[in-house]
Amino acid sequence: MGSEGIIINHPRKPRFLCLHGFRTSGEILRKQVTTKWPQSVLDKLDLVYVDAPFPCQGKSEVEGIFDPPYYEWFQFNKEFTEYQNFDKCLDYIEDCIIEHGPFDGLLGFSQGAILSAALPGLQEKGVALTKVPKIRFLIIIGGAKFKNQSVVEKAYASPIQCHSVHFLGEQDFLKPYGIELIESCVDPLVIHHPKGHTIPRFDDKGLEEMHSFLDRLQKEVTSNSEQDISSEKTS
């Protein structure tokens, strides 16, 4: 028998919506990730990068390093306890998921990481992402928790159940807050690195741990896809 007409179904990769840092952009995050992470990791992921909804309203720390335009997800006071345009930000992310999804998880750096880690809890409480499937996976780089009490009560009311990996930099100014976030997660994988608030490269141990994490995600995505196909055939 020839090979004509034979369709080979390759398992789809875990798909992530990527949320960039404060006053940067989706393109900047893409460059940071693709230049720092090895192809062996990138090949196991389907990453979609989007810009935040609001143009940069002040100086960006990446000026002179990366070209503009720069964007921000929402605005906040010095203590990070009061936010402007936060609800609009949540609606915008939901629109991005509807337009570009579906997604299995979120990858976030800095402001994008803070958002990403809070969204599963906000979704569970029915105050965000009510029109899209449940977030199941998180990749958090330089993350922390929100400080606004209203958001805290909703986002972290229950332990974060998503499979999650957290990159924790020894010199990151957010490290203490990143540890607080990790303590709110169920069975998180923590990959330590010696750098500061940045997208890190992998050492041998971290790379091995990341591959194991992604293999676990792939098995879950493949299993869910097979269940969906089976359900469609029997319905």
TrEMBL record:
A Pfam family hit: FSH1
Ranges of residues in domain Serine hydrolase: 12-203
Domain of life: Eukaryota
InterPro entries: AB_hydrolase_fold, FSH-like_dom
PANTHER family in UniProt: DIHYDROFOLATE REDUCTASE, OVARIAN CANCER GENE-2 PROTEIN-RELATED
Protein name: Serine hydrolase domain-containing protein
